[in-house]
Amino acid sequence: MKIDKAVVEHVAHLARLRLDPEEIELYTQQIDRILEYMDKLNSIDTTGIEPTTHAVPLGNVFRRDEVNYNFQVEESVGNAPDRLGSFFKVPPIIEVD
Amino acid sequence: MEEILHKSIRQVRDLLKKGEITSVELTRFYLDRISKYDDRIKAYLRVTEEMAMRMAADADRRIKEGTDGDLTGIPFGMKDILCTRGVETTCASQILRGFVPPYDATVIRKLNESGYVHLGRINMDEFAMGSSTENSSFQVTRNPWDLDRIPGGSSGGSTAAAAAGLCAATLGTDTGGSIRQPSALCGTVGLKPTYGRVSRYGLVAFASSLDQIGPITRSVEDCAVLLKVIAGHDPMDSTSIPEGVPDYAADLLKDVKGLRIGMPKEYFIEGVDQDVLGAVEGALRVLERLGATVVPVSLPHTEFAVSVYYIICTAEASSNLARYDGVKYGMRKEGKDIVDMYKRTRSQGFGKEVKRRIILGTYVLSSGYYDAYYRKAGQVRTLMRRDFDEAFTQCDLIATPVSPTCAFKIGEKTDDPLTMYLSDIFTIPINLAGLPALSLPCGFDGKGLPIGLQIIGRPLGEALILQAASVLEAEMRLKKIPDAFL
User: Fold this and answer.
1) pLDDT tens column, B3-21
2) Measured between beta carbons, which residues in chain A are less than 8 angstroms from residue B434?
3) Domain boundaries, chain B
4) Architecture of domain B2-245+478-485
5) SS3 sequence, B36-62?
6) Would residue A38 count as lying in a domain?
7) pTM
8) Any catalytic annotation for residue B178?
């Protein structure tokens, strides 16, 4: 076993997902199998090899910090499930007892 | 009007310019076909009839005034992953239901400037994660060549719509094969451009170092015409390449004498369907007959592609999908505090495959595992790129099968995610290396299911790929649309 249910639950929490017991069971099995398969990468010698993060050799791409298109409030927050004027409304962020 | 289905975009544009047909008539034709046939195929999530007719009328006006562009009046279906201003864009996910983008993706802006007509939103695997379009949270699209089979994925809705003549052409997206594999399974032409050739601004992100938008069409010429419109540098996408866009149709049908085609032994192996090998090898013999030389090459790290890909793409996806939290757009499920709200929203809003990939991606990036998985995968990715660099010193193009099998039955691979992942084994390395590649129909199997040939090129080598593909296409003259839809 490369991964157990406790790890899956912890990772789910990091990813802000809540899984039911069946899902935890299923994902643990499936992800374990996938990670086993990925073990084959250990057979390759990668000493001194730089990882590739992007396939094109472009360096830092800059542009002038100028305002281009100015979205109106309705455009910016118009899709919000809950809002107050130009604010997104959300449940409490800071813990209250 | 049905002969229209067998005409190229340029031929139709000619008819429009001469006034022999109008865009309104053409659009009506496609909308009627969608009404008649899409019940069986289920390629479209939503048809935007009013918008289509309005755009068609605008196109007809532009044509009369002589201000038309390369695509004016041509009706397109649109994979529901490209932000289109004022049009609900869901990525086939519950979590984006009701999301109406306030802006157009750059490719959409370019299509607009060219005068296209938008027929409707096309189905896909949720957030582009899948190889069968079975992961859509709305509906499963069927393969027009056999309605019990999958069209491939994640652009399965797009290839099904193009193959069944439910649009003139469409755009797809490709992260690990999602344009090429469904194209092979549905008998369409599909091109994944060089990474950075087409702007990703407004493309809902899955894996940022792999995603690309590309054409899905019924002919190579249409593919070249469409690529010319959508390609180009974009200041809004800092990974877009600052190179000019050639006329991709200029080299079509030029001869292939002296062209060296690499045949990598790692792609012609056990486990690939006999009919697929036969059709692909047959296409290579045609190229030889026409003057090309086939040379054996090797891409030694091919067997590690699936492992590398599913570490990198899930890691990037876990980061990209963190934005779906019920705060700014889409679905929200209320909770007692913010974390509770996030968890409810995301758990109910995402489908199984998406959740699985988020968990896998979060795991490989997490403390203690980052070096073993993510960093290691990045290093092997470098080795895979070097394989291609080396191979391209011996050949100009590389030819391989696209998919080890033809379209499988709906539900056949849904129990085991790993089996599904392995079906992308031939398309994935190309995304990891950032190369351009096209899927060209090259035959049918014993059951009449389409087979695709993959033609891979050097970075920014799309013109040569299209040239070789056009020559092959002209020689092979395969059926494009199943009889059931004619």
Assistant:
1) 999 999 999 999 999 999 9
2) 54-56
3) 2-245+478-485
4) Alpha-Beta Complex (3.90)
5) HHHHHHCCEEEECHHHHHHHHHHHHHH
6) yes
7) 0.97
8) yes
